[in-house]
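quick one before i forget lol
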Amino acid sequence: MPAVLRPALTLCLVTVGTSALTGRVAAQTEQAFPYLATVTTEEFVRAGADVRFYPFGRVQTGDVVKVIGEKAGWARVATVGPAFEEFFGYVRYATSSIPSFRLSLDGASGSTIGPTDIFAPNLDARMDPASSWKPATTLAANRTLRVIETTTLATEVVHKVVLPADAEGWIDLQRLRPATPAEVSVWEAAMKESTGAPPVSRAPDRPAMPITLAPITHAPSARAPITQAPVGRAAPNVGMAIEVPPAMVPNTPVAVRPRPVSPERRRARIMLDDLEAAYARLLVEPTESAEVGPLRLLYLDLAKRSRDSRSISRFAKTRAQQLALWSEVQRRRLDLAGALDRARRTTESAESARLVMEAMDRYEVVGLLDASTIYDGKRLPKLLRIRDDTGRTLSYLEPDDRFDYAKLLGHRIGIVGDRSDDNGLRVTLIDPRRIDVLDSTD
């Protein structure tokens, strides 16, 4: 580690040192990152900040990791250091498309041509590339990667690559503690030893016979040096002349300009980040009341709009499938709750049932007013939602100055107004003309 960074690291360790008594890393301010932490028990490294994200590797007790952020009780770690030496990812692209990754002639390395996703392998799916949908990082053009192996499938090419140091994973903060000065020193020594990229291929046991080839521009491998000579001439210091037909001489690779990131792809990436933030908020909500349906429609809309970005489109479709399964579980629970509610209502007086029916006839919608988790007013518009007793969303409201919605939150209300479908937000809106409170406001 450079000397100029050691004071910052020392300050970071002092900051987190007070949490050693609790056995976990204390909450960090933005200025305290990065810092080093030690793994207290064998633990998965996950593709997101929740147990619902699949694991793509495992760290062992005593491993030291570099924490670059925290979120909801999870540590964001960079895949750098001895703990991540065996971690890898996938670079994938369709055989029918223009690849954003160029493989070297020896197949041991490659470089990115444009923005390239490196997908974290899904351990839950036996590291099947087709099931590995979460990017560990997205690299810009002109980044070189070590390639472990390349597989060509019927419709896709998959490169298994060593994860770069700027890839990210997530570890439960309860499995970490601040690294001691001795552990920091060992980690720094290991990082110094690993400076400089290791060879991308192993030298053969026997030096290869020099062959006269025309100069080429790709990165040299670890093989014996090649003597440059005109095609058809004998190599110097060799007892026999070797004629190389011109057809066997590799052509100089044509320079390919990195593809610029289009405004559509940039907007799609921003929208995906917003939807992922909304998805993370839904994970901590009760299954019955989570706004699963609207979020699923937003992911499907993003997948449709992102056809020029296969990775974003594929990711959005996968997330929509997950939400569809969640929606089915939600539907079954709500059906059960509805059946129980109907059974309860049959035991109530006929007068109460009559009043409920009259209320339903008078109002366009009757339900509890609640805030929306998805439409929170940050990047998506701010909306309020009306839900029934089971948590099912009935409709949405746009806040306005005609009604004091702050006082109505949490109360059962009846709304006289008009319904309309907002195709952009994928929700049903109601424009109220009158709002009545149907429960006690004491």
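fyi The longest helix spans residues 310-346.
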